[in-house]
Amino acid sequence: MKRILMLQNAPIRRILLGCLAVGVLGTSACAGQSVTPIDIHDPVISVESRRFVADAQDAVSIARSGYDYADQELRAARQQRARLMAGDAWDAVSAEVTDSFDTLLKARIRLAELRRDAAEARVDLAQEKLREVYAETALRHDIEAYEMAPIRKTVDAALEDLSEANARVAEQLLVVDRSSRAWWKSYRGLLSQNKHPNMFFTNF
Questions:
Q1: Predicted confidence band at 6 (pLDDT cuts at 50, 70, 90)?
Q2: Is residue 171 part of a domain?
Q3: Helix/strand/coil (H, E, C) string of the chain?
Q4: What local confidence, expressed as pLDDT, does residue 185 receive?
Q5: Number of domains, the chain
Q6: Contact 35, 129 (CB under 8 A)
Q7: Quick check: is 35 in a domain?
C-alpha cells in the first residue's frame, strides 16, 4: 500500500488527483446529480476543508493501489496453477490426490477473484465518499448547493456493497481451509506409501 500523502508534501499529486476526480465524479451519470470537484487551492476554501478534501482524494488513490495489488495477486494465482499442474510431475500420482491439489489451487484463485472484487468495491466507496466531501465542502463555503440525501444514499449503498464483498471473501476463506485440509490428508496418504514425499514442497 502506498502511504498516505501529506498535504504540504504533495501539491502536484493533489492536482493530479483533482483532475482525475473531474472525470470520475464530476460527470458521473450513474451517481445522480453531478458534483463539481473542489479545488483545494481555492482561497475561499478553509485550511480545515482543504485537508478534508485531500484526505478523501488520498483514500481514492490508496483504494486504487489496493485494487492493482489484488489484480496482481489474482494473475499470480492463475499462473501458479498453470505452472504447478503442468508437466508429468503428477503422472505417478492417483487422480484423487491430483484432484484434491487442483481443487485447492482453484479455491485460492476464487479467493483472489473475490478479494479483487472487494478491492473494486473499496474504490467505488472511496469515490462516492470523495463526491460526498466535495458536495459538503461546496455547501459549507457557499460555492454550490446540492441535495445531500441522495448523495449520502449512494455512499451507504457503496458501503453495503463492500460489506457483502467482504462477506464473500470470508466465506471463501473457509472453502480454502477445507480444501487445504483435504489436500494434506491426500498428501499424507502419499507419504505412507513412500510415493513422491517431496512433491508438495518442490512444486508448491
A1: very low
A2: yes
A3: CCCCCCHHHCHHHHHHHHHHHHHHHHCCCCCCCCCCCCCCCCCCCCHHHHHHHHHHHHHHHHHHHHHHHHHHHHHHHHHHHHHHCCCCCCCCCCHHHHHHHHHHHHHHHHHHHHHHHHHHHHHHHHHHHHHHHHHHHHHHCCCCCCCHHHHHHHHHHHHHHHHHHHHHHHHHHHHHHHHHHHHHHHHHHHHHCCCCCCHHHHHC
A4: 87
A5: 1
A6: no
A7: yes
Task: Please check whether residue 1 lies inside any domain of the structure.
Answer: no
Q: To which residue does cell 479483487 refer?
A: 116
pLDDT at 23: 47
For the record, the C-alpha cell of 56 comes out as 478523501
pTM: 0.78
CA atoms within 13 A on the CB side of 68: 8
Return the C-alpha cell found at 141: 463555503
- Find the farthest-apart pair of alpha carbons in the chain and give their distance in angstroms, rounded: 78
Three cell numbers, residue 74: 489474482
* Average pLDDT along the chain: 83
Residue 2 lies in a domain: no
Residues 6+ apart with CB under 8 A from 2: 61, 62, 65
Domain span including residue 32: 7-203
